[in-house]
Each structure stands twice: as structure tokens, then as C-alpha cells.
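Sequence in, structure out.
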Amino acid sequence: MQKPDIPRNEQARLETLRSLSILDTPAEERFDRLTRMTKRLLDVPVVLISLVDEDRQWFKSCMGLSDTETSRDISFCGHAILGNGVFIIPDALEDERFVDNPLVVNAPNIRFYAGCPLRAPNGLKMGTLCILDQKPRNISADDLEALKDLAAMVEREIAAVQMATYDELTGIYNRRGFKTIAQYSLNLCARQQIPAALVFMDLDKFKQINDRFGHAEGDRALITFAEQIKATYRNSDVVARLGGDEFAALLPNTSKLLAEDLVTILQQSLKKHQQEISRDYDINFSYGIVEFDYERHPTIDVLLAGGDSLMYELKRSKRDN
């Protein structure tokens, strides 16, 4: 058996996949509808929307198979995402890469496979729309084009998921996306007893920027702040614009002290950037840092409320002074 190779852009690919906030989510009719359509149109017993994670392939939608995931090492889809076209295996028993694959010699006894890579909006391949059969077969030119068209429809649904979880202006998570992915991170931290901290941020006097310079300039200020957040925090951190001029960052495996240090770095970076571009206003912010405690913060909403409260105390202190 031949294990699939790892793509050269694997780190960026995995980051993109996880940023979609789609892994391990419940079944959705809009995806199930497409696998049902594929099964009916192409007359195959098994259809999967398979997303290739670091060490597994996970099925967002699955028709004709009871499994929800399998190991990446034995996956056909791990091979499919290495190419640009449809990956076709007419008879797995005649292919030395798969002849002794557990998915071939045992259930579901794959003989035929065809997988069309699924791309995220940035072009990176997340997985496949694939069709399987327990008997050898070929795929006609018409069916091949139909599979590509159906895969394009799946890609549009994936793009819709991303648009629903990202802030269009700044390119970071919106409130919905943040709450989804941050809750997963908190659950992991709780299970593994890993520390975490949340930073809740709110721009100071943002209304004055809008009133004096216009909303276009206000948008520019929000974009600048988001860019500085992305440059300061790590790839493992979850950052978001919650709405208006409110931002948040969840920092796994981080103490409150380290979170304070990162806020200082963000302040210094923001100050340096403003000196370089020389605008007629400064971008400053107030913040609140909460150290994660599962007993006190069972959900991300509770953690956010704590950060919001601490941020407001600092903002009120600034006004009083």
C-alpha cells in the first residue's frame, strides 16, 4: 500500500481548512442534497464530501457509507488532493498503490474511485467530492464533466460557509466564526488541561474618527487595527472582529502574563505603524484579559462577557482621567 504524499503547501492548506470552521460540524441539508444528487445522477452506491485533515479524512456528507472518517494514510482522497484534475482508479485491485489497502481488502471493499478536488476560495485543496463502487468500472466523459460541475457546487457551498464566518472588511473571523472555532479550542484546552487567555479589545474614540474623517476612513482604521492584530498574534490564536470596533483574540496555551506581553507588543507595533504612515489621528484601544478557567468559563460567551467587563473598566478609567 502506498500512503499519500504530503502537499508542499500543507501548513497553509491545514490553516485554511480549519479556518472554514466546518470540520466536525453536524450534517447540513445543503451538502447532503448535493451528495444525493451525485449518487442519483452518476448511479453509484457511495458518494462522499471528504475533507482531508492532518491525520484523517472526515466526511461532511456521506451517502452509502456508515463511517464518518478514516485514517488519512489509507485514504484515496489524500492522493486526489495532490493533483489538479479528477483522480480516477478504475479497479483498485489492479493498482499497486491500493491493492492491499484496508479499504479495498476489507469493508467498504472499494474497487472504483473517482475524486474531484475541492478548493477553498483561496485556491488551496481541502478535500474531494468522490464517488465509490464495490465493482470495477470506468467513467464516461459526460459523467466526468457532471462530477466536476457537482464539485463546483460543493465549492460554492464551502465558500458560503466561509463568508458566513468571516468579516468581509477585515478578513478575520466575525462573531459567529469566532464563537464556533474558539469554543472548539476551549474544549480542547479543557480536555488537555492547557492554559488559555482571552483578550477583548475596543478602539478608543472610534466614533470621533468616523465623525471627523468619514466612514471610509473609519473602515481604514479598522483594517489597520486588524492587520496589526494578525501580525502580532500567532497562527494558533483565534482573532476576530466581533462587530463595530470590538475585537477579540483567544490565545491557547497562553498565560495571562504572556497575554499581557502580547498586548504590549501590539500597542508598540500599532504606534510604530502610525508614525510611519502619519495620519491625522491615532488608533488606540482598551482591553480586558481573562484567564480561562473551565469551572468559571464553561462557554466562550461567558469568557467574552468577562473580557468585555474588564475592557469597559479600563475604558471608563481612561475617561475619568
